[in-house]
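Input.
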Amino acid sequence: MKKLSVFVFCMFAFVAVQAQHQINSFFAPDGTVRLETQELNEAADSIVTVFHRTEDIVWRRDIYRVIDMRQKQNFQLYFPVEPDDPTYMSMYRLVVDAVQKGLTIFYPSERILKPLLTMDNIVPKDKIIDQFVVGGIGELDREDETSYILNYDSISDQLSFQPYNYGTYVRNQLKYLVYEVVFFSRATSRMYRKIVAIAPLQPDQATGGPEEPARFMRESVKFWMLYDQLRPYLASQYMIPTQNEAKRVTFEEFFEKRLFSNYIVGEGNMYNRMILDYCLTEKEAKQEQARIEYELLTFEQDLWEY
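Output.
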């Protein structure tokens, strides 16, 4: 009788553990590899964030970086190029999907530094499609819906995805502009990096040429997105894997762990100038980028005495 009681107790304990920790099979019932997309959508934020008090922040710098998807380390952001892949999405396809579902986007301003991310600068829902037009809105008839990636229905007040020109459009979507804040907290005595906003760069509407690189970059900004509003979409979508199919990373992990390669194009300054505004040659620009990176790297170390 005692052995039976012990056996029953062990069975109940095993069932309780199973209920608390669901074991997911690597393979689906039909024998195919099972992707954890359903569990991922139901999960909370996958990366814990730290709450920072205003009085703890004693130093801060605004940094503007460009992520170029032509660099090998960023290929996962660009692929797959097909708009209807059943498993994975590219970064831009994810952005289009997020905007369609209600993500707020902001108009680009004439200045890249300190973009206007306020309620007064939000793109209205019926104007969003103008930010997703092939060839630039100035060259096309707004009634020609085949030139747009998104279509707006005024009756239902809904946006719908149109894949017809997606391939043509996304070929030029090779860069993203990232606005981040680097700051030091005395509460933890360490440096932090926080992405504030991301903007897709497309040169289809830019009129500045190689002789005006700063103007060309300003006019290439399509719109701004707040990172924290985009983050739920990044956390619920896996990136296309490279080499190891079992090692899958979400877009959120990719950005939070800073797995992307980038280069600096500006920092916060009283003149509101980007590097390209005052560096006339490529050598000068690279020297300025190296200076900023060095100051960010050494600031924390200089606070300590060994």
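The CA atoms of residues 41 and 236 lie 5 Å apart.
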